[in-house]
Design a protein that fits this description.
Layout lengths: L2 H26 L2 H27 L13 H27 L9 H28 L2 H28 L3 H30 L7 H9 L6 E9 L4 E9 L5 H19 L1 E10 L1 H9 L1
Parallel strand pairs: 2-3
Antiparallel strand pairs: 1-2
Length: 287
């Protein structure tokens, strides 16, 4: 089993769940149920985004993307968050427009929503299992989205049943609750994707400098940068060492720096620029 196959299976199930919810929502006139169907539709859209992003992200580095295509996964997460934000606004507008309108009861519709809820619970657990097993950030984000869909469906079913008993205003209130959940989910996805896309510093430079300075042969630590690629952390470090060291000895120091950053910060991709201590060499020449 691989990530793209999981997304295809989930996409098929989400299409069925979305169709069922939308049918019940239109049949009963419940704004909350329609809002829940739209929420499920975003799951399907997310599956399409994710499948395409994974396909691109798995491509090897090339001339136009020498550092690889890993960020396309985070770009897909950002796109999903943007779609969710738009959907949340649409849900609010629709709920307000339908305020106070009658909501009908439907035993068949209730059964369909409960079955859809059980499908979503199973889907969230299944996808969460594979997200951990494959160590996939995008599957984990999608599983989180599906869990929110489960919670939303529970809220919607309760709101719909109360509205069907004559409390029509509750349907609008619960639709607004759904929109709040969608907004929160979008916010969390933005929090996850934006730092990677804008190359936000992964670790405070002072911590990295302290770790590198612990190596005896390092005289000074210059520029230190780190970032998260979405598939791991990378860093680049500039250090000065004795000008009397050979190329082999300097290379050994670079290996030590890579090892320290991997052990303490789990940074597996480190670029080390080693410079000779010019001041030390000039002092030696003067003497």
């Amino acid at each position: 089993m691989h990530v793209r196959k999981i997304l295809l299976i989930e996409g098929g199930l989400n299409a069925i769940i979305t169709l069922c919810k939308m049918t019940v929502g239109l049949m009963t006139g419940s704004a909350a149920v329609v809002a829940d169907a739209v929420h499920s539709l975003t799951d399907l859209v997310n599956n399409l985004f994710a499948w395409l992003a994974i396909k691109i992200a798995e491509s090897p580095a090339d001339g136009s993307h020498p550092y690889g295509h890993q960020k396309f996964e985070q770009l897909a997460v950002f796109a999903l968050a943007s779609v969710l934000t738009i959907v949340a606004f649409e849900v609010i507008v629709s709920a307000v427009e339908r305020f106070g309108e009658p909501v009908e009861q439907s035993i068949l519709g209730l059964a369909i929503l409960i079955i859809s809820l059980l499908f979503n619970i199973g889907l969230a657990l299944w996808e969460g299992y594979w997200a951990k097993r494959l160590d996939s950030e995008i599957l984990n984000a999608d599983a989180t989205h599906t869990i929110s869909d489960v919670l939303t469906s529970v809220v919607v079913i309760i709101g719909w049943q109360l509205a069907a008993r004559g409390y029509y205003w509750i349907d609008t209130i619960f639709a607004l609750v759904v929109s709040s959940i969608i907004f929160y989910l979008a916010f969390k996805l933005f929090q996850r994707a934006v730092p990677v896309l804008v190359d936000q510093s992964r670790y405070p430079p002072e911590q990295l400098k302290e770790a590198v300075n612990s190596i005896p042969a390092v005289i000074t630590v210059g520029n230190v940068r780190s970032r998260d690629t979405g598939k791991g952390q990378v860093a680049d470090v500039t250090v000065t060492v004795s000008a009397n060291l050979s190329t082999v000895e300097s290379h050994h120091i670079a290996d030590q720096i890579e090892g320290v950053l991997a052990d303490k910060f789990d940074i597996q991709d480190v670029v080390v620029h080693v410079e000779p201590d010019v001041d030390q060499k000039l002092s030696a020449a003067d003497s």
